[in-house]
C-alpha cells in the first residue's frame, strides 16, 4: 500500500509538471498493438548517437534547507568522459568509467574516488553508463536485461520491471512520439528510498533528440533532494578536451 500511495503521489506531480509547454513536441499516440519488445527496441533505436556533446547546463539544487544554482560548461565524450566547469573554474567535475572527481575553489575541497559518492547522493547504485543514460533521457538500466511488463497507459508506454528477487521497483514511461523517456522511477521500500527523473522537454539538435529540461527527485525517509537541470546551446561532435587537475593544498571530502 505504501508503494502504491508513493507512486500515485509522484505521478500526480509528474502530470502537473508535464502540463507545461514543451519546446520540442513529437505528436504520437499510444499504439496498443505494440508489444513490450517493440517498445524497448524503439527506445534503443532512437538512442542519441554521437561522439561528443558540448553546451551549457543550468543546475539548481534544493535539499529542503538551502537552494543553490550554477551555470556550468558541459563537455561529454560518449562512453568515455563527462566534464563540467563553473564560471572561472570555481567548481570542476570530471567523471570517467573508472572514477568520479571534483573540486571546489570556494571552500578548497575535493573528492576523488569511485561512484559511491554519487550513488549515496541519489540513493541508487550508479556507474558511468547509468549516469550518462540519465543525462541523455535513456533508461538507466538495460531494458533488454529486465523482465518488463507493458502496462496500460493512454499517455505513454509504461514499462514495469518484474523481478521477484529484486528489492528495487523500476518504472519507465516511454514517449509514444520519439520513444525517449518521459520519466524513470526507482523505489526501494525496504529503505524508504526513491529516485524519480522527469524529462520535462526535449530539443532537436542536428536532427537528433536531446533532453532540454529535466528534474531529479531523490527521497530518503523525510529528506528530499531536488535537482533541476536545463541544457542550453547544445552542439554535437565538436572537438573537446578535458582540462582537469586538483589544486594543491585542498582538503579531501569524507562522507
What does this structure look like?
A 14-stranded mixed beta sheet has the order 7-8-9-10-11-12-13-1-2-3-4-5-6-14, sandwiched between helices. The chain has helices spanning 2-18, 36-45, 116-122, 128-136, and strands at 52-62, 67-77, 81-86, 91-95, 100-104, 109-113, 148-151, 157-161, 169-174, 181-188, 193-205, 208-220, 223-236, 251-252. By secondary structure, the chain is of the alpha+beta class. The longest helix has 17 residues, at 2-18. A hairpin with a 2-residue loop joins β12 (208-220) and β13 (223-236). The radius of gyration is 18 Å and the shape is globular. The protein has a single domain (31-238), classed as Clam (outer membrane lipoprotein receptor (LolB), chain A).
Distance between the termini: 34 Å
List the secondary-structure elements in sequence, H or E. Answer: HHEEEEEEHHEEEEEEEE
- Quaternary structure of the protein: single chain
Q: What's the Cα radius of gyration?
A: 18 Å
Query: Quick check: average pLDDT?
Result: 89
> Which class of secondary structure composition applies to the elements?
alpha+beta
> What's the CATH topology label?
outer membrane lipoprotein receptor (LolB), chain A
Largest sheet: 14 strands, mixed
CATH architecture field: Clam
Number of domains: 1
Helix content: 10-25%
Which class in CATH terms? Mainly Beta
Per DSSP E runs of 2 or more residues, the count of β-strands stands at 14
Shape estimate: globular
Which spans of ≥5 residues are poorly predicted at pLDDT below 50? 1-22
Number of helices: 4
Give the strand order, joined by hyphens, for the main sheet.
7-8-9-10-11-12-13-1-2-3-4-5-6-14
Q: What's the CATH H-level superfamily name?
A: Lipoprotein localisation LolA/LolB/LppX
* SS strand fraction: 35-45%
Amino acid at each position: 500500500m505504501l508503494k502504491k500511495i508513493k507512486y500515485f503521489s509522484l505521478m500526480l506531480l509528474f502530470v502537473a509538471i508535464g502540463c507545461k509547454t514543451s519546446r520540442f513536441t513529437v505528436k504520437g499516440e499510444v499504439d496498443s498493438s505494440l508489444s513490450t519488445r517493440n517498445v524497448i527496441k524503439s527506445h534503443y533505436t532512437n538512442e542519441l548517437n554521437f561522439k561528443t556533446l558540448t553546451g551549457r547546463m543550468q543546475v539548481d539544487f534544493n535539499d529542503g534547507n538551502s537552494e543553490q544554482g550554477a551555470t556550468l560548461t558541459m563537455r561529454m565524450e560518449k562512453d568515455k568522459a563527462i566534464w563540467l566547469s563553473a564560471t572561472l573554474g570555481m567548481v570542476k567535475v570530471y567523471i570517467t568509467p573508472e572514477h568520479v572527481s571534483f573540486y571546489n575553489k570556494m571552500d578548497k575541497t575535493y573528492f576523488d574516488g569511485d561512484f559511491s559518492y554519487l550513488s549515496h547522493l541519489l540513493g541508487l547504485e550508479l556507474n558511468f553508463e547509468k549516469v550518462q543514460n540519465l543525462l541523455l533521457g535513456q533508461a538507466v538500466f538495460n531494458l533488454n536485461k529486465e523482465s518488463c511488463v507493458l502496462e496500460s497507459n493512454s499517455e505513454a508506454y509504461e514499462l514495469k520491471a518484474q523481478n521477484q528477487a529484486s528489492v528495487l521497483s523500476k518504472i519507465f514511461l516511454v514517449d509514444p512520439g520519439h520513444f525517449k523517456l518521459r520519466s524513470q522511477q526507482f523505489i526501494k521500500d525496504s529503505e524508504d528510498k526513491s529516485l524519480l527523473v522527469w524529462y520535462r522537454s526535449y530539443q532537436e539538435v542536428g536532427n537528433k533528440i536531446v533532453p532540454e529540461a529535466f528534474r531529479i527527485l531523490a527521497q530518503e525517509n523525510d529528506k528530499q533532494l531536488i535537482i533541476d537541470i536545463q541544457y542550453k546551446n547544445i552542439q554535437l561532435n565538436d572537438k573537446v578536451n578535458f582540462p582537469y587537475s586538483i589544486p594543491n593544498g585542498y582538503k579531501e571530502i569524507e562522507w
